[in-house]
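Structure catalogue
Derive C-alpha cells from sequence
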Amino acid sequence: MVPDPASNRYVVQPVLKALKVLELLAKKGHQISLTVAARELALPKTTAFRYLQTLSVAGFVTYDKASDKYGIGPQFRKLAATDTSIQRLREVALPYLRQLHAEFNETINLAIPSQHHIVYIDMMESTRALRMQARIGSRDPLHSTALGKAILAYLPDAERLSLLTDSLAERTYRTITSTKVLKKQLDEIAAQGFAVEDGENEDGATCIGAPIMDDIGRPFAAISLSAPQRRITPALTERIADALMQAASQISDNLSQQV
C-alpha cells in the first residue's frame, strides 16, 4: 500500500504539488496549456499558474508565448541525462569493481565530483574487519580524498582553482589545508597517474584512487580502494595503484566505445 503524502507531517505540500505539475508535463511528452494542467491535476488555475511560473524561472519548464503552452525545460532534461550517464558508468564499472574486490578484498569505491565534493555512486565493501565509514550516496571533500585528488589533478588550472577557493576543511589532523601544499601534491599525482591519502579524510584509513577520463581526456569520475592503514604496505600500494589505473583506463575505453 502506497503511503498517503498528506498523512506525513514532514511533506511540504506546495513542493509536492509543483513536482506533480512537472511529472504531468514529463508524462505528456508535449506542450500543454494552463487549462489542461489545472484540470488534470485538479488545481485552481491561479495555483497551477504559480507552480508553472516558478518551475519556468528555475529552468525545469519552458513557456511558449506564441502557443501559450508549457513544456519540459532544459534543467529537467539535464537531470535526466545525468542520471542516465551515472547509470551507464555504474554498469560499465561494475565488472572492474568486482575484479578489484576479489583481488584485494578491500573496499572499492566509484565516485563522481559534485562542486567541492565527491559523491559515492557505487561501492563494494571488504568482508574483513575494520571497514570504512563512507556509504553510497554520501559525500566527502575533494581535497581530503584520493578520489577527489585524482580528479582535481587532471582539471585545468582555472577550474581546479575555482573548486579550491573555499577554505579547505580539516577532516583530521593530517588533512592538507594549504592550497599551496595541495597544488604541489596534485602536480605529483598528475605525473604518476594515481592519488594516495593517508588518514586525511578518516583517521586510520588509507585510500588510493585513479581518475576515469572521458574521450577528450577530462576526469569525470574516479575509482579507489580504501582500507585501514596498517593493511596497506608500500609494496601493496604499488600493486593496488597499477590495478586501479588499469581498471580506470578500461572503464574509460568502454564508455567511449558506447558513445
Q: What stands out?
A: The mean pLDDT is 88. The first strand starts at residue 32 and ends at 33.
